[in-house]
Write a structure and sequence with these properties.
Elements: H1 2-42, H2 51-73, H3 80-83, H4 88-120, E1 124-125, E2 130-131, H5 137-158
Antiparallel strand pairs: 1-2
Length: 171
């Protein structure tokens, strides 16, 4: 298992880096769209009708992609206060409980996000002419990445590969 994890690490690291960069691009794009909306409303006195819908969709993408990378890097909430007083075995147990809770939440994101996508596919966003179901795609993709990164964390922990810098993507 250890060798398999080490073999797929470059791929998962690249995937996390791509998700992080995509989230950053989405944040910048949303900022530009909102700037255009404010400029149009207050300077041109003609606010673009599409800007709010696009901004909300971009926001969903960068939030869910960024959150999944945060899971991989260990930046999400956990049992930090107890970690300082727990023995090593207790830390492993608490981290695993935290990861299992995240895994359950991410699975629910994918399942219910898929149901929402299917249920709203026939409706159209009036200002964009696109399916409302597309707005739930970030929930599904973010949930899938969160599942992948959480399973990786658990497997690394039980293969003896976990350390403070194991998930860093900044290299």
């Amino acid at each position: 298992m250890r060798d398999a994890l080490l073999a797929i690490d470059p791929f998962i690291r690249l995937l996390a880096k791509a998700a992080l960069y995509a989230a950053g691009v989405g944040l910048v794009a949303m900022t530009l769209v909102i700037f255009w909306q404010v400029f149009g409303r207050y300077v041109l006195n003609s606010s673009p009708s599409w800007s709010e819908s696009v901004a909300v969709i971009l926001m969903a993408w960068f939030i869910f992609l960024g959150a999944s990378v945060g899971i991989r890097e260990g930046y999400h909430l956990g049992f930090d206060v107890l970690m300082y007083v727990m023995p090593p075995t207790g830390k492993i147990v608490l981290r695993t409980i935290s990861d299992l809770a995240v895994l359950g939440f991410a699975l629910a994101m994918m399942i219910y996000g898929t149901q929402l996508l299917q249920g709203t596919w026939g409706a159209v966003i009036p200002t964009l002419g696109l399916s409302v179901g597309l707005s739930f795609l970030p929930l599904i993709v973010g949930g899938g990445l969160s599942i992948l990164f959480t399973v990786e964390r658990i497997l690394r922990r039980f293969s003896g590969l976990e350390n403070a810098n194991a998930f860093a993507i900044a290299d």
